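Here we describe the complex-level prediction in full. Unlike the single-chain runs in Section 2.1, the two entities below were treated as one system.
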Amino acid sequence: MSPLNLKQPRDPASVYLPETPSQTAGPYVHIGLALDVAGLPEREHEIDNVLAEPEAEGQRIELAGVVLDGAEQPVADILVEAWQADANGNYVTEFAFNNVFNSFGRAAPAADDAGHWRFRTVKPGRLPYAGGIDMAPHVNLMLFARGINIHLHTRVYFDDEAEANADCPFLNRVPPHRRNTLIARRAGDNPAGDPRYDIVIRLQGPEETVFFDF
Amino acid sequence: MALNDHTAFVMRDRNWHPDPAAAGYKTTVLRAPQQALMSIQTPSVSERSGPDFGAMALGGNDNDLLLNYRQDAAADGLPIGERIQVFGRVIDQFGAAVSNTLVEIWQANAGGRYRHDMDSYLAPLDPNFGGVGRSVTDAEGWYRFRTVRPGPYPWPNDPNSWRPAHIHVSVMGPSIATRLITQLYFEGDPLIPRCPIVNTIRDPAAVETLTARLDMPRSRSFDCLVYRFDIVTRGALQTWFENA
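The structure predicted for the assembly as a whole is:
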């Protein structure tokens, strides 16, 4: 008989902890994550919707959006988080308030914004993908709100990157008739003179946005 | 740029998480996507990476809700309510510490009122309570907050729906793939099984993991009770190194 008496677990998964389950961020998410929208005084530093300071490298842009519910009404209490590469296609993983560019930011509509939110950032660069063909420039978004029990992941591409979009190995996995739901439209300039891109994210309906599980 | 991040994560068990379209929580009806989520079998650097908040400058009282909204420190004003500490560890599904990760909380005051322009519940605001905190986990994944126990409050769902006392908890983890927002409940609260939001979770064992436990040995004599709330993020897997 072996001196070792190892017992394998009957179900390997049973020895791992289950992930903490999600719960909705609720209507008052701003108290915690977007203090100005709640009417709270801001602390010395807040994570906000400005990813790129003026001195950041790359083309400054404004990414503006609205999230619509199944009745085509704006989701006024949405909180949007962005995660994007810098202009050279690198994620800045070390977040710091004095970075000229952070890959992470948060946006939430103010009470009089009718559900519209915006990020001030730079156009991200292309990014590598398995197989050697780059992904087109994109911004990853996470959506949180009352009535959303577990946050939603989506991506935003740019309509003036048609060639890169056509080659993007990630975008090409999205069924062709739904790709348009991920593409922001160039819509003039914002008051600061930066190119503005508009995205409409639909939670339901025939043009429902593609949401990802990964 | 080469693929510089070879971490993947244990897949999310969406039957353990709440049902996105749970009609008992009425707001989900128009907000839950109706198409299937699109599965990404080969996550890219975009899905695997995420912000590291270890270098983020926090204020000294950011994790102390008893002090961080005090209107007049000289007048010794403190929030009304039951003083508590909430502490715990952020670990992944394999038990590894999740260090340097941002944990953020927000909550109602002891009367069940939020300091939010949109909350008009008749319970009063507390002049010394804001209801927001943040902290970064230490090298072993520990976090800690000091606050008051929030009150339950009514909300417009059923004609007479009340939320159990709860604290909203947001945790980033090492990647946007591990991003999570949840709610902490308190053991023994009779409103937990009656709550339409809690009941979007199908498995009672999952609800148990959201229920903070009284930690009597750590409670401070003549000061505060202590509640333990551990948070588990998706397990990090090292994948094969590919020559890309």
